[in-house]
Design goal:
There is one protein chain. The chain has helices at residues 29-41, 57-68, 70-73, 97-111, 130-143, 156-169, 192-199, 229-232, 241-245, 248-264, 268-277, 292-299, 308-317, 329-334; strands at 3-5, 12-14, 16-19, 46-48, 77-82, 116-121, 146-152, 176-178, 202-203, 285-288. With 343 residues, it is of the alpha/beta class. It has an eight-stranded parallel β-sheet. Strand 8, helix 7 and strand 9 form a beta-alpha-beta unit. Helix 1 runs parallel beside helix 12, helix 6 (156-169) packs parallel to helix 7 (192-199) and helix 10 runs antiparallel to helix 13. The longest helix has 17 residues, at 248-264.
Length: 343
Amino acid sequence: MQYRTLGNSGAVVSNYALGTMTFGAEATEETSFAILDDYFAAGGNFIDTADVYSQGVSEQIIGRWLAARPEVRDRAVLATKGRFPMGQAPNDLGTSRRHLTRALDDSLRRLGVEQIDLYQMHAWDPITPLEETLRFLHDSVSSGKIAYYGFSNFLGWQLTKAVHLAKAHGWSAPVTLQPQYSLLVREIESEIVPASLDAGIGLLPWSPLGGGWLSGKYKRDEAPEGATRLGENPKRGMEAWQARNDDPRTWEVIGTVEKIAADHGVSASQVALAWLADRPAVTSVILGARTTEQLADNLAAADLELTEEETRRLTEASRPRVGVYPYGPMAQEQRSRKIEGGR
């Protein structure tokens, strides 16, 4: 395991974080405890959860695990999120001061801690003024309820606006952004990655295996079945079966991953994770696991070093499709400049 600073903060986290969306849903409490034990035994120290994961149950499981292992609490860096509905009333969601005050206190209670290390806005709120949200986060840092804050699923302009508003008001600055990012989903490289690099924001990619596609468990034109995410629900979310199966690029990427994995004698998952962990601005890759076996395989990516040629092959095969403007090659040239002058 490698260790990196949490974005532009002084806190240190492992380069693979443990995502806990499965806790209380796809993983029982007993299995969740075993996953946490194995993760920390492997050198990890960064736990990521959210209030909406199993409607608070994920946070409760983590809280009970920490209470049973007080020696681990000082090692653990805890991240959670607020924003999505925790009830049916109009003020049971969003990033307003009213909702976040309750959401943060509820997360602290479920986790059984006095301070959350990283509190993240789970998504942009088009209704609440951003100044209201940022002032709440600054006040929460000042009061000691949170150490740092960040965002999830923000666009490039939204992140940049937040960074500069915080600076203009003299408020605490954001340190991280949690976007979807993988060999199959690289569109954030056009705007979000540059915005993060400009502000010193650390990326915490979620769904690093593209919803399981990059593990190699799905086969072309063979509808998934059984105890997998798409086997249980082929139309699930952004990784739905039909659209990705019909896209030749999906199988070009997976084929390249599997060839490199075979050369190293490792799993396809490890290759995909190793590529992502070394991308610009990435602080920590969020691993999700239903079982300790899945976790062990994913954590082995920390020992895999890809060659420059292997990285180039993966990057080329997965290159995102863009139009002529504003992200095509000629448009990119318009934003570049040779120091020696000329074209």
